[in-house]
């Protein structure tokens, strides 16, 4: 639902056929004489600019001038080369201008040989600039004002709003903002959103993964919808806008004041059940499905620290990973999974036990044991700093023994300990004991990499 801005700015000596091709697609080709004029029209919201490349010096200068001006406003930059040598040169400059993300660069601009003018015109006809900048004034409620190009993305995303106030959220890897807006002069109804800004490719992959996981079937209520027409694309970064989850608290905070059984049950009966709808039976080496980043050398620190504590003899990293990889194949259910289900990505609505999951960036098909395993191990190891939740090393040593499902009656009053047991009671209905040990072992090793000796020791207890 992008604003229709079909003007296409033409700069340099271009073949007349481009004008005809553009006009045939209901676009408005507008030749300009100077780069200043081109920049002015881009700022006013032209959909694309097409530049012909002359010699190398001119090309470099033009790209330098036009590149950010065009792309910051979401326009497509089309470069037309007269012959092969110009084409190679243009490609090289394009790659050099985006060293970290050359494919992302090509997604924002197109280099065409003269013979490919039709394809370029089609590409422009399909291109959406998203929103333009507007005059929205952005006010900070909490945190530092974002840098200039990020501010521009925020202004584009909320260009229809009267008032926009930002609050920095305590984020994970990204720094998300809560955005409170008043949309119209007439109806001064407030609305709240969450915006994340990140590199174009990362944001695009988060949008695709979320759409894949939630698109048609994970209904409204279990996941805050992405507001697609506010997701603008800039030169190097994009913005992802989703609805703010109102009147809800993170699972970690919820557990400090509530008993876990109902909330944990509604994670499994709610969003996870919907994700499991299309599960398929499979058989394989679940222990080999560990994240590619886990390597023996990342585990030595935790291993040596475990030995220094000297509670018991543990297997060294190579042997432990080999045991995981060589564990016999198991039958499992392969299903669409959240893929990052730690307790910081789970909200519980106030006064109910309805669950909302956020952050589907890593969503993919996995064995049904992986989400529960990640959730329980996050409850054991990802503490909020103030949490005095009574989870002691002794409790974890007792909970993380095989058979894992057999430890649901280990006595504890710690809310996170009880929550871990509730997750296991639910998981027992989804995955065999063998599969679950492997899934939990993988999660424990992931925490052990972060130099956690106890996680390493528990992994050794859990991996067969
Ligand atoms: N839709 C939302 N509603 C309310 N808070 C949110 C929402 N999305 C994110 N947050 C807050 O921002 C934090 C980080 O967001 P998240 O999407 O998990 O980003 P990251 O990729 O950094 O983990 C969350 O833990 C939560 O506190
Ligand atoms: Mg997160």
How would you sum up this structure, described in words?
The protein is an alpha/beta fold. It has 18 helices and 16 strands. It has helices at 16-23, 35-43, 56-72, 84-97, 102-108, 117-126, 148-157, 200-214, 251-257, 261-269, 271-275, 296-309, 317-326, 370-381, 393-399, 415-427, 433-448, 453-462, and strands at 7-11, 28-32, 48-52, 76-81, 109-113, 138-142, 163-168, 177-182, 190-199, 237-243, 248-250, 280-284, 330-337, 346-349, 355-357, 364-367. The chain has a five-stranded parallel β-sheet, with helices on both faces. Helix 1 (16-23) links the parallel strand 1 (7-11) and strand 2 (28-32). The longest helix is centred in the N-terminal third of the chain and has 17 residues, at 56-72. The model has no long low-confidence stretch (mean pLDDT 88).
What brief labels describe this structure?
single chain, alpha/beta, Rossmann fold, Phosphorylase Kinase, domain 1, Aminoglycoside 3'-phosphotransferase, Chain: A, domain 2, 5-stranded parallel beta sheet, 5-stranded mixed beta sheet, 16 strands, 19% strand, elongated, binds adenosine-5'-diphosphate, binds magnesium ion
